[in-house]
Design goal:
The complex is a heterodimer of chains A (about 250) and B (about 300). Chain A has a ten-stranded mixed β-sheet with strand order 4-3-2-1-5-10-11-12-13-14, with helices on both faces. Chain A has a two-stranded antiparallel sheet with strand order 6-7. In chain A, about 25% of the residues lie in helices and about 20% in strands. Chain A contains eight helices and 14 strands. Chain B has two domains: about 250 residues, Glutaconate Coenzyme A-transferase (3-Layer(aba) Sandwich), CATH 3.40.1080.10; about 35 residues, no CATH class. In chain B, about 30% of the residues lie in helices and about 20% in strands. In chain B, the strands form two sheets. In chain B, strands 1, 2, 3, 4, 8, 9, 10, 11 and 12 form a nine-stranded mixed β-sheet that branches. A three-stranded antiparallel β-sheet of chain B has the order 5-7-6, with helices on one face. In chain B, helix 2 links the parallel strand 1 and strand 2. In chain B, helix 2 packs parallel to helix 3 and helix 5 crosses helix 6. Classes of the chains: A alpha/beta (about 250), B alpha/beta (about 300).
């Protein structure tokens, strides 16, 4: 048995995407743990923005389940409203944002609205929340998702959060001035988007290329210098478990 | 026109007087916190519907109104259960028209805030860049792309929203309805100003002097408020800063019960329909549970000087 879970290596990989001093639109679940891990290790000056209106530079004062929980508001730098934090996005003051979803495609479009099923049925999902806003307006987008063939599809059924689009210049045509997916972090590896298309750049330890290919719905492109994702260190695991003591998200 | 100076009412009176069939109701304006569950439960108990529900990430408050068959339309950025993800009653209504068909107008957190902001300014539309490029705006009557006459940029005209009534929960208010809330507030300010009527619930009714001692803290001025109802624990199971934290177990239990339609109806009876009021709800939760959720780590702010 591995000494860490797939979710824990995803958190560690996501944390490495945060540079010191960056303004991060955080989100919940694994991205929140990644932000906490980054600020506790290599990015002590990263600033976290939560869409309910919280701006803070250090982890919540106790473990939390939602961004509205009392310990996430206590000791914040600023408590404001949706308009306040969304304006930071609109103004271009947010360096990166995290989102998850039910489906992602090779251009980094994310679907959190509806999944078509055989026989004309469909599954209704909760919707955008702030996901589409982050995908439209953040400097770069990081997508965090479980790696399954039904999730990594050639083309999403519904574009909730726009990615790079099927051709160069697609985002500009839509009216988007910046941004776009920088990385897709899955339970098997990490993709980057060098030309606006997903390219597998690292595989997590113990994951084979065959396995990743089988679980990817599009024709897998891989970096010629395919790497192995660094394992979370004991210190990183200790920090992740401190913020998710019951394993609510990482088990 | 001003509104009467003493607006204190029982929650049952306030809901009966301010919420009408066919209304557009804004709720859950504070996102994960301050969700006005006491008020939305009273709407369900009184069976007021059909309603249009307006919310950012509306959480299980909306899911319960849908389960009760009282919602015909939802205008929201996200509908589900913040602890566990899926809102099963919402899903059944959209996928299978159970217990009744539901129209959904999808928004994003930014676009729905801007729609209310426009409504709060008496304007017919707001301007946004998000969510251009998303399928949300396709065939959607609230979104119209246009070219900016000043810059030539492609932008979105977002239709204004004016709720008939906004349900808002805050920490404290005076009898005139000056509501003070602290903590991240979502689109509470915009919803209060955009709505025709405001029903305010609060943890504590305080003397007007407490409000005057810290006027910066007034989130909803009394001039916008029609009724104020003191309802301790009025946002449970959502958190209220300085009073109580999230009751995650309650959300998880609701998720488990709402998966199956018959059990969802049983949940509604057990926690809303068969209870006469909020006091009975708190009795059912029990003192041990409330004690566990109650604020236990004080964090007082430094006083500020308002003197001259």
């Amino acid at each position: 048995m591995s000494r860490y879970t797939p979710a824990e290596i995803m958190v560690a990989a996501a944390a490495r995407q945060i540079k010191d001093g960056e303004v991060v639109f955080v989100g919940m679940r694994l991205p929140l743990l990644a932000f906490n891990l980054a600020t506790a290790t290599h990015a002590p000056h990263a600033l976290g923005v939560f869409e309910n209106g919280v701006i803070r530079d250090r982890p919540a004062t106790a473990p939390i389940i939602t961004m509205g929980d009392a310990p996430n508001q206590c000791q914040a730098l600023k408590l404001c409203d949706l308009e306040g934090v969304m304006s930071l996005l609109g103004r271009g003051r947010v360096d990166l944002g995290f989102i998850g979803g039910a489906q992602v495609d090779q251009w980094g479009h994310v679907n959190t609205h509806r999944v078509e099923m055989p026989g004309g049925r469909f599954l209704r999902l909760p919707g955008s929340g702030g996901g589409a806003d982050i995908a439209c307006l953040a400097g770069r987008l990081l997508i965090v998702m479980k790696h399954e063939r039904r999730r990594l599809v050639p083309q999403v059924d519904f574009i909730t959060s726009p990615g790079w689009g099927p051709r160069p210049g697609w985002r500009q045509e839509q009216g988007l001035l910046r941004g776009g997916p920088a990385a897709l972090i899955t339970s098997l590896g990490v993709f980057t988007f060098p030309q606006g298309r997903a390219v597998l750049s690292s595989l997590h330890p113990g994951v084979s290329l065959e396995q990743a290919t089988a679980e990817t719905g599009w024709e897998l492109l891989r970096d010629p210098h395919l790497q192995t994702t660094p394992e979370p260190t004991p210190q990183e695991l200790e920090i992740i478990r401190r913020f998710d003591p019951q394993g609510f998200w990482t088990h | 026109m001003g509104k009467p100076m003493n607006k204190v009412k029982s929650l049952a009176q306030a809901v009966a007087g301010l919420v009408r069939p066919g209304d557009k109701v804004a709720l859950g304006c504070g996102l994960e916190a301050f969700i006005p569950f006491a008020a939305s439960h009273e709407i369900i108990r009184q069976g007021i519907g059909p309603l249009t529900l307006i919310a950012p990430i509306s959480n299980i408050g909306i899911d319960q109104i849908i389960a009760a068959g009282l919602a015909e339309e939802v205008i929201a950025a996200w509908v589900g259960n913040v602890s566990t993800g899926v809102g099963y009653n919402f899903r059944r209504a959209v996928e299978e028209a159970q217990p009744r068909p539901l129209r959904v107008y999808n928004h994003t957190n930014f676009s729905i805030t801007l729609a209310l902001e426009a409504g709060s300014r008496g304007l017919p539309m707001a301007v946004s860049r998000s969510p251009l490029g998303s399928d949300i705006i396709r065939d959607h009557p609230h979104f119209q792309p246009f070219t900016c006459p000043h810059s030539g940029q492609k932008l979105l005209a977002v239709k204004a929203l004016n709720p008939d009534v906004a349900l808002i929960h805050v920490q404290r208010a005076d009898a005139a309805g000056n509501g003070q809330g602290w903590g991240a507030s979502g689109f509470t300010r915009q919803a209060a100003l955009a709505a025709q009527r405001v029903l305010l619930t609060c943890e504590e009714l305080v003397d007007s002097q407490a409000i005057r001692s810290d006027p910066d803290r007034t989130l909803v001025p009394g001039l916008l408020v029609d009724a104020v109802c003191p309802v301790p624990w009025g946002a449970h199971p959502s958190p209220v800063q300085g009073y109580y934290d999230l009751d995650n177990d309650f959300f998880v239990e609701y998720s488990r019960c709402s998966k199956d339609p018959a059990r969802a109806q049983a949940w509604l009876r057990a926690w809303i329909l068969d209870l006469p009021d909020r006091t009975a709800y708190l009795d059912q939760l029990g003192p041990a549970r409330l004690k566990r959720l109650k604020m236990s780590h004080s964090a007082l702010s430094s006083p500020v000087e308002y003197g001259w």
